[in-house]
Amino acid sequence: MILINKSSDLLSYISEQKQGNRSIGFVPTMGALHNGHLSLIAAAKQKCDIVVCSIFVNPTQFNQESDLASYPRTLENDIDLLLSVSCDVLFHPNIVEVYGNTLDKDSSEDYGSFIHQLEGASRPGHFDGVVTVLRKLFALVGPTDVFFGQKDYQQCLVVKTLIKRSFPQIVFNLCSITREEDGLAMSSRNVRLSEEERRLAPQIHDNLQLVSQYWNKEQWQLGLNLAQLNLKKEPFCFEYLCACDPFSLAELNVFQSNAIVLVAVQLGSTRLIDNIIIVP
Ligand code: PAF
């Protein structure tokens, strides 16, 4: 695996690969890698000639300084994991390489009304930071394909819009959620859970499954209510659990057979999100 820190080195490496007509799969990450990320790399390896993973903790997408400061940084372990799945390139730039000297942000305001819902409501400005950094990274890496995890479903819709508008040559690949044996969605934030919180965290997925079991015209709202009640019990600090249209993310007020149910809760000091796609 080649480790690249400078944007100029990445650009020349990529231009060589393009001269050789190689397809480039890109997996952008903020590090603290886990099996979920590795499954994205594996999907990229299957489809593309060269796989580039970036590790960059993007300051503009954090709306709380404390969250940015405490975001786990585990570079040595990340490198070992990337080697274990034969990733070709790790791009690990510093802030100046990506942003220059000013942390200016793009706006995601006109990406659709879903921008202000769910994660957008809980983390104002978050998606502005995401589109800002991805625009820069996509321009540097010039990927043929990008790979994103369904766990950040709303982010996936944002990325699809960015691609449609500014990078129509890139193919977006949605990869399913990787879970621990007890159902907890893998996340870099899971390491912050105490033993007791980790024991309780699978209830998030259990309650998504509960909703999917009740998913019929007569009982869908009952399922949602039950799951909400369960996740409003201490020590969970409930943010949202709602059923939405999978394309527009508009919250459902009438039943439809295909839906996505998205959830966010705080457990201790750790904020966790998850979702389940319901297909007819
Ligand atoms: O999902 C993430 O880890 C980040 O939002 C991303 C896509 C790497 C942008 O910083």
Continuous helix count? 11
By CATH's scheme, which homologous superfamily of the largest domain applies? HUPs
Q: How far is the first residue's CA from the last residue's CA?
A: 43 Å
> Judging by the overall fold, what is the CATH architecture of the largest domain?
3-Layer(aba) Sandwich
- Radius of gyration over alpha carbons? 19 Å
Q: Which cofactor or ligand species appear? A: pantoate
H/E series = EHEHEHHEHHHEHEHHHEEE
- What is the strand arrangement across the widest sheet? 1-4-3-2-5-6
* Assembly state (oligomeric): single chain
* Overall 3D form: globular
Q: Please give the share of residues in helix.
A: 25-40%
* Strand elements, count: 9
Fill in the CATH topology of the largest domain: Rossmann fold
Highest CATH level, the class of the largest domain: Alpha Beta
Beta-strand level of the residues, as a percent range? 15-25%
Average pLDDT for all residues:
97
Would you identify the regions where 5 or more consecutive residues have pLDDT less than 50? none
Number of domains: 2
Largest sheet: 6 strands, parallel
**What would you call the structural class?**
alpha/beta
